[in-house]
């Protein structure tokens, strides 16, 4: 029996030298079924790129949505991270945070846009992340609103420092964010402490809405795990790609 069409995928691994971080950064690029470089495609950039592909199964999910739901084909770019310095890069109090934001916006985006036929408007460019990956995706949009206006946050780790940054914003009417959090995430231990992710996300939602952002928000039964996020990922993708 032949495998389903959506399992036939092209995933390219590339390495980019970052002047900002002074090191290599690995990327995984998913090209959709029927990929044709003379066409142009919406693009999703994922923090924790390796995990989005391995545990989030985003390539398989994308193939299913494109083949079975007749969704317009899109490209996925997974930006890999060294777990040992993940908090330093993704958290606003991290010592590599500013350099990582600059690497993402000023090096990774131009590299992808030079090498792949991705669309170049903020409306066709989505940034997705889980936990701290969700919060750094929001920070990317706040730092580079000319590039990023559409965010997917899976159980975003919106620590007090992140909420303070959002609170300083006056007008976020340009921002559209899809947020999901698991109801069993009320006492989750991270490398910086124990947090109530439900309360954290509720507070962030209120801060964003008060500043005019468009927020699609849902709470579901689930824990702070890829088993939960994988199930929620299709709904978040469809929110932006089904328009």
UniProtKB/TrEMBL annotation:
<dbReference type="Pfam" id="PF00756">
    <property type="entry name" value="Esterase"/>
</dbReference>
<dbReference type="InterPro" id="IPR050583">
    <property type="entry name" value="Mycobacterial_A85_antigen"/>
</dbReference>
<protein>
    <recommendedName>
        <fullName>Esterase family protein</fullName>
    </recommendedName>
</protein>
<dbReference type="InterPro" id="IPR000801">
    <property type="entry name" value="Esterase-like"/>
</dbReference>
<dbReference type="InterPro" id="IPR029058">
    <property type="entry name" value="AB_hydrolase_fold"/>
</dbReference>
């Amino acid at each position: 029996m032949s495998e389903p069409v959506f399992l036939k995928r092209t995933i390219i691994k590339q390495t980019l030298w970052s002047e900002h971080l002074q090191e290599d950064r690995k990327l995984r690029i998913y090209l959709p079924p029927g990929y044709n470089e003379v066409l142009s495609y919406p693009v999703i950039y994922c923090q924790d790129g390796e995990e989005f592909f391995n545990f989030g199964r985003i390539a398989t999910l994308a193939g299913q949505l494109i083949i079975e739901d007749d969704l317009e084909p899109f490209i996925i770019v997974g930006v890999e991270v060294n777990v040992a310095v993940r908090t330093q890069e993704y958290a606003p109090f991290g010592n590599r945070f500013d350099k990582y934001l600059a690497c993402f916006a000023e090096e990774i985006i131009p590299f992808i846009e030079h090498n792949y036929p991705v669309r170049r408007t903020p409306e066709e460019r989505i940034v997705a992340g889980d936990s701290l990956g969700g919060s750094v995706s929001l920070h990317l949009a706040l730092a580079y609103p000319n590039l990023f206006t559409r965010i997917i946050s899976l159980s975003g780790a919106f620590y007090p420092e992140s909420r303070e940054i959002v609170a300083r914003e006056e007008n976020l009417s340009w921002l559209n964010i899809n947020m999901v959090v698991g109801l069993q995430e009320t006492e989750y231990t991270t490398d910086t402490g124990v947090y109530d992710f439900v309360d954290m996300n509720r507070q962030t939602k209120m801060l964003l809405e008060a500043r005019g952002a468009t927020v699609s928000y849902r709470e579901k039964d689930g824990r702070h795990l890829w088993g939960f996020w994988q199930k929620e990922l299709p709904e978040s993708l469809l929110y932006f790609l089904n328009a």
